[in-house]
Amino acid sequence: MNRRDEMNKIIQDFSTSVNLLQVTADEITKSNILDHIRCKIYDLYLINNLGAELKMQSNAVRTLPFQNNRIFTKEELSRYNGKNGMPAYVAVNGTVYDVTNNAAWGAATHFGLTAGNDLSTQFASCHAGHPILQNLPIVGTMVE
Known about the structure:
Helix content: 40-55%
CATH topology of the largest domain: Flavocytochrome B2, Chain A, domain 1
Shape: globular
Distance between the termini: 40 Å
Organism: Caproiciproducens galactitolivorans
Order of helices and strands: HHEHEEEEHE
Protein name: Cytochrome b5-like heme/steroid binding domain protein
Domain Cytochrome b5 heme-binding: 72-143
Family: Belongs to the cytochrome b5 family. MAPR subfamily.
CATH architecture of the largest domain: Roll
Number of domains: 2
Structural class: alpha+beta
InterPro entries: Cyt_B5-like_heme/steroid-bd, Cyt_B5-like_heme/steroid_sf, MAPR/NEUFC/NENF-like
């Protein structure tokens, strides 16, 4: 599928989602639909700005080396929220990434998500299949 087809598919998905929002009374369902729309907005961003780069990277999988092999607890990770001079870290599937200098994480937030948290579930629902994490520095691992 080319970029134009991908964008058209996402636009059709927007239309369907907006129609669902109009007829849905349940607040939880509305919230889920809005989360889905946020994910699709980010998909459009990726297609528009990173499309060629992501396709090249998907052919050659690479992982950035550990900056250090630090172990993070949930409480410790929460301190790395990008505030008060602290870097912005997020955990996905047990790996902690530094998003401090990532443009998509300006002000240590990304479409309502905040740094300093385990975002495994949110990542899976929005970015599964996208090699986004491959460009982020790994700073450690997350433990329960």
